[in-house]
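Entry 14. Ran structure prediction on the chain below.
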Amino acid sequence: MIDFRKLLNPEQYDAATAGDGPLLVLAAAGTGKTRTLVHRVAYLVERGVPAERILLLTFTNRAAREMLNRARGLSGSAVASIWSGTFHSVCARFLRRWGGRLGYEPGFRILDEDDQKKLVGDIIKSSVADPRDFPKKDAVAKMISEAANERKPVGFIAARWQTKVAGVEPEAIAKIAETYTARKQELGAMDFDDLLTNGLRLLRESPEVCEMLQEHFLHVLVDEYQDTNGIQAEFSDLLAAKHRNILAVGDDFQCIYTWRGAQIENIMDFPKRWEGCRIVKLESNYRSVPSVLDVANVVMKDAPHQFEKTLRAHRGDMGEKPCLCKVYDAKAQANELFREIGRMRGLGYRYGDMAVLYRSHFQSIDVQMTLARMNVPFRITSGVGVFEQVHVKDTLSYLRLVVNPRDELSFARLVCLLPGVGEKGASKMWDRLGRTFDGSRKEDREALHGLLGAKAKPLWPPLAKCFECAADHLADNEIGEILEDFCDLFYEDHLRREWEEADAESRLEDIKELAVQIAGEGIGSEDGAGRRRLEAFLADVALLTNLDARRNDESDDKVTLSTVHQAKGMEWPVVLLPWLSEGMFPSGKAQEEGRIDEERRLFYVAVTRAKDRLFMFSPDVRRTPEGGVFPIAPSVFVREIPANLLSMRRVASAPDSFSSGFNRSGALGRNAGYGRGGSAAGDWRSGRRDVTRRW
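Output, structure tokens:
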């Protein structure tokens, strides 16, 4: 017999040994959610519930395996026959057995992501007059997937994307989706989204199968319930409808994936959907020191639409107060972040014990460059460094060709962005141009225009305009203007054809940040400074890229660089949070769209990743691609934290035109002022005569 009282704290024990009926376990960050679920399984088996009549639904196969292995450690082979797996894998098991009722053979094929994209690509090629002027297969496949998960028409989702930029109506995307559905049926195949939608269809449209499964499963347990979408919530509700023994484990404070279909209403309305639902809160945190939890509690204290929870520290040592570090700009922030990493190393922490977490990927560029220069090993959770990304490589190719007309590789990459141009065609053009292309010369621009095919010719004039203006911008030391022209006149439309709106916007932010980096190169303003600044930056990039390649070793002792979204479920002894400033975290777009509640939850997730030490950085200004600055206020989330909970430090005084943002008591004012007449939004965009600014 397992002594559950000895193995669990009172809250965990209450949840793991609860009686029959619906149960909502609100597991706050670091409170032992997995431990509780595992002991719940062991308790049910020990109580006599046959393991094969327990269903455990998770979001990853890794989570399912971990829970099952830990349950075996408690109860031995008695739990071996439990039904555990992701929603997708459980639906696949159902459909293998009863999919014939929906017209599928038991051996139906499951299309993986590559299969799906290839099939969509083949349909586009065979049904669209000019596939090169149509959204790419990856984008169309993602629209189809979003429509399935959100249970909305594909045309509705397509209209939400920037398809009109490519001259494509949503109805055209919907026709591709219809053909895709028909082709899957001909092939007797399902993609991953079909597994969910057809799994739910099976329960809805086959009453006898639904009743049999409802009778079979005495207990349904759902992990990470705050991340469920509408299909997953209805699927688990239906399976548990007869015996009403459904246990949902999750944390509304950590619902941060609504942008990919998660519906916070599922967990918030769970007690309403299940009459007599009991709620157990896990609030004893085993991860973080009390000083970190004090900040986390303040973050969510007044958040609307929540189940109130207060994290209580199990660890006895108070720990150092989280540090709020005020810095002047991004470069000062990256330098101070590097110094803190070095200081933590001096205190005995490994590189692998530290993580830099940011709201958006472009916010890491300064950090990546600084750590690379200082030879600090780091890993990026996406696996792709800033200079390895496709859109950054495209942009750098343009810049290299601007300063070096004999750069064949950059020429080839750039012209291959035009429709109808491939590697062989680019090579032939290069030879016919005399193996050089000086975009500042009208003769070269016209010569290349004459070599392009009918599909590429219409897109060449705006790109030619970029090259024409680049020489003047270089002479005037206007590096930012070079990249703005490139994006405004040509590359933004290219991105919107290739990617969904949010992804395209993120990539544009990366390019803007590159311009900021170039503008910040420490070179004077005399004649020729612009060219030298750009050449120095490109040389630096080449060096850093080579250093990145050398760092691809097997060592685990590396600083982690990650977005907060990707860091959910992880923890580190030391966490560093840059860019806690208005417009950065929370993001400006989220503020405009009224999604501040989710940004608050995202900040909570970021704070609660820290076990021992938390460092927060708030710059006074953002630099512009033109080399100027505009003031920014500290993040609203930072301003809400009482000064007595933080160790506040100013690294370097700002110029006189900017105030520190601290009041006399040392607390951050809610409307910390900056400068003489400056605003947090800061209109830093220069007036331009003929180009609409989109940055």
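Residues 654-695 have pLDDT under 50 and may be disordered. Will compare against last week's run tomorrow.
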